Here is the input.
Amino acid sequence: MIQDIPNINDISDFLQEQTGWQLWPVKGLLEAEDYFYLLSHRYFPVATFVSSNTDIDFSQLPDLWHDIFGHIPLLFSPIYSNFLQNLGNQYITIKDVNDKDIEQEIVRLFWYTIEAGVCDEKGKLRVYGASQLSSIKEIKYALSDRQIKYPFKLENVINLTVEIDRVQDRLFEIPSFEYLRVIQDDFDSYIASISYGMLRKQQ
Ligand SMILES: [Fe+2]
Here is the structure.
């Protein structure tokens, strides 16, 4: 059977109809500020190019395959898409108080959930991180018996440096996909307390 390659406009129209999200074509990596700004407005940036076949197992940079197959199906889940939009909102809130450390913490939370996240589903390990979903090497490694999965603890995640140039050997497992809501609430409270404190200091 012949299949067309994904058409970004068609996918975007369908996605908008179903979820309110739209795709935003990009030619390369965006600055974090621009990326999170788009997320906060329910636009998902999608690379318009495909990586070289030498990177078929693993690529440190997102391409069309990564964005379309790794992220877009999950946008149909309100839990995932609200979590993602909220990260965008949190980044913008923190940008206003200009705290680089907290910006990094948001990037790390994004990374260890949206990009490199695993969860339990009725006793089975599932992958929802787009880095794993779009890479044969990453997904095999994530689902292997190797000791690379750790229980998700917000304070550990937001303090762990992100290294995008290699297969992830530290993944944080959430007890269920729905647990993203708990993380969202906890991180919201944390961001609210920080931004309130910062704004008070500036007065
Ligand atoms: Fe991604």
Notes: The pocket of fe (ii) ion is lined by residues 62, 66, 70-71, 115, 130 (CB under 6 Å). The domain at 8-202 is CATH 1.10.800.10 (Phenylalanine Hydroxylase). The radius of gyration is 17 Å.
